[in-house]
Amino acid sequence: MNSIRVTSSLTGKIYSLLHTLKLHELHISFSIQKKKKKKKSVIKSFLLEKIQGTINPTQKLLTK
What we know:
Elements: H1 2-55, H2 57-63
Helix pairs in contact: 1-2
């Protein structure tokens, strides 16, 4: 009887641990997605800058 109680409480602890790990994993993946979006916007602005530089090269020369 006692061993059954121990294993059930142990599995309960393992399940709760797995649940918290899963939530943590979701949070990490969410924060990574946020960072990726930031990177994309930075890359977009950089590319736009480059495109504008090729369209108007005299402005780029004047700023340097």
